[in-house]
Every structure is written in structure tokens, then in C-alpha cells.
């Protein structure tokens, strides 16, 4: 009986408070676990603002994570496509280095061969 009186008194106090201050909102939940909450409208605005901010932050985080996942997938695809080209590039680099070494060996021989190939002009006794 004492518990029932407390509930009635709390409800009556909430109603009187609501009559005095129209910025009061009563939230009642029925069912097995009945509860009664009294909130000010300013508190409700704060709750709404916090919930809206959390929603916007989570939406932005979701968009960012989807972008990063998509970017990682695209990077893997590009790496797979470029693998044969990288191998070909390595082969061409080794071939280029071999040709440069062969050219370096040939270049010093050319001036010697050019000097030997030029016939000396006969001296004139005039």
C-alpha cells in the first residue's frame, strides 16, 4: 500500500508541476514494468540534439569507411593488372643495362679504329 501511495503522489506532483510549468513533458510506459518519467522540454531538446549529432557522425563515419574499403579493393585490382607490366619493365631494365655496358666497351675502341683507318697523306717535297 505504501508503494501505491508513492506512485499516486508522484503522478499527482507531476501533474501539478505540468500545470504550473507548461515546459514539462510526461513520459509514461505501461506494461509489466510501469514507469513514469518527468522531463523538461529543454531536456528533450538536448536529447534530440545529441541523438541527431550522433546520427550525423555515424553517417559520416560510414561513408568514409565505405570509401576506404572501395579504395583498397581498387588498389588491389590495379596491382594485379600491373604485375605483368612490372615484370616486363624489369626485363627491359636489365636488357638496357647490358646494352649500356656493351656500348661502353665499344666506344673506346672506335677512336682507335678511326685513327688506324685514316691513311696518312704523303708528304710532298716541294
Count the DSSP helices: 2
- Distance between the amino and carboxyl termini: 151 Å
Class derived from helix and strand content: mainly alpha
Percent helix, as a range, is: over 70%
The average pLDDT value, as a whole number, equals 77
Number of domains: 1
Tell me about the biggest sheet? 2 strands, antiparallel
Strand % is: 5-15%
Features:
2 helices, mainly alpha, two-stranded antiparallel sheet, single chain, 2 strands, 126 residues, 10% strand
What does this protein structure show overall?
This protein has 126 residues and is mainly alpha-helical. The chain contains two helices and two strands, in the order αββα. It has one domain. It has helices at residues 2-20, 41-117; strands at residues 24-29, 35-40. It has a two-stranded antiparallel sheet with strand order 1-2. Strand 1 (24-29) and strand 2 (35-40) form a beta hairpin. The longest helix has 77 residues, at 41-117.
Can you lay out the helices and strands and say which pair or pack?
Layout: H1 2-20, E1 24-29, E2 35-40, H2 41-117
A few lines on this structure:
By secondary structure, this protein is mainly alpha-helical.
Amino acid at each position: 500500500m505504501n508503494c501505491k501511495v508513492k506512485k499516486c503522489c508522484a503522478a499527482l506532483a507531476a501533474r501539478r508541476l505540468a500545470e504550473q510549468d507548461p515546459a514539462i513533458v510526461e513520459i509514461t510506459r505501461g506494461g509489466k514494468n510501469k514507469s513514469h518519467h518527468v522531463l523538461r522540454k529543454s531536456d528533450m531538446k538536448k536529447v534530440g540534439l545529441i541523438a541527431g549529432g550522433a546520427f550525423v557522425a555515424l553517417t559520416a563515419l560510414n561513408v568514409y569507411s565505405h570509401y576506404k574499403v572501395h579504395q583498397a579493393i581498387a588498389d588491389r585490382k590495379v596491382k594485379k593488372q600491373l604485375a605483368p607490366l612490372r615484370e616486363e619493365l624489369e626485363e627491359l631494365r636489365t636488357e638496357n643495362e647490358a646494352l649500356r655496358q656493351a656500348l661502353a666497351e665499344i666506344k673506346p675502341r672506335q677512336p682507335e679504329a678511326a685513327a688506324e683507318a685514316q691513311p696518312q697523306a704523303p708528304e710532298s717535297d716541294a
